[in-house]
Amino acid sequence: MELFIYVFAALFSVINPLGSIPIFVGLTLEDTKKERxxxxxxxxxxxxxxxLISFFIGEYVLKFFxxxxxxxxxxxxxxxxxxxxxxxSGNISKRKGLNKRVTNDxxxxxxIALTPLAMPMLAGPGSMSLLIAMYQEQPEISQKAITCxxxxxxxxxxxxxxxxxxxxxxILGASGLVAISRIIGFIVxxxxxxxxxxxxxxxxxxxx
Length: 208
What we know:
There is one protein chain. The protein is an all-alpha fold and 208 residues long. 85% of the residues lie in helices and 0% in strands. Helix 1 runs antiparallel to helix 8 and helix 3 packs across helix 7.
């Protein structure tokens, strides 16, 4: 249960689906309620698939390119810390990898569930590198199964948040969403620093 809570909390903080609410609302403003539900469920499915692929295949990609796990932790930690700072500063669109051209292009396409919603807005490099590092840290099959369950629960949570995005945006308001994003941003920064520090400690142990 402790591992499940840790993985779920870490992924939820890094992905930050609450911070995606304003973008989702903007992209689906002219869609019907049924269409929003369809986009929400497919976005959640796409995120789950992307995260599961990253978790199981990421290690072999690292081996192919000759990248060590400590190098990944440092690179992923930097990305995660940068994401956290973007959340603290309120620059959510930049953190999500979106710009005006991407947003305008998405507005004119029929299906936005995969791009830009699932990737890069939700399943970005921060969450991917986090899962690759977790795979290395979990040698037992039971641990991997628990992580997969946490990934599926995150995907389900993303579905309910996106499905309720228009309602939540009215209830929380712009200031409420910013406040929540900044709190999550602080947690995200701590996660990133933890990964960087653990990698540096391992490198120093090998060097000494």
